[in-house]
Write a structure and sequence with these properties.
This protein is an alpha+beta fold and about 70 residues long. It has helices at about 1-20, 25-30, 35-50, and strands at about 25, 55, 65. The protein has one domain (about 1-65): Arc Repressor Mutant, subunit A (Orthogonal Bundle), CATH 1.10.10.
């Protein structure tokens, strides 16, 4: 089921943020390069909807971080 893949990808992003802290979206994509770009975006959406991450689009470049 595709929903499980999105959940696993969200977990991978979450663990990466837990280990590395705030990171630019560009660097996150590079660090998780084996992840399909569409799946990456869907996983970010999942984490955002669950209120688990902050996405700072006013920063240049845009960054993501775990919610405190």
């Amino acid at each position: 089921m595709y929903q499980n893949e999105i959940g696993k990808a969200a977990g991978e992003i979450w663990r990466h943020l837990d280990k590395n802290g705030t990171i630019s979206l560009e660097n996150a994509k590079k660090a998780l390069k084996k992840m399909n770009p569409d799946l990456f975006q869907q996983a970010l959406g999942w984490l955002a909807r669950e209120d688990k991450i902050d996405i700072n689009t006013s920063a240049k470049p845009a960054t993501i971080s775990k919610k405190s």
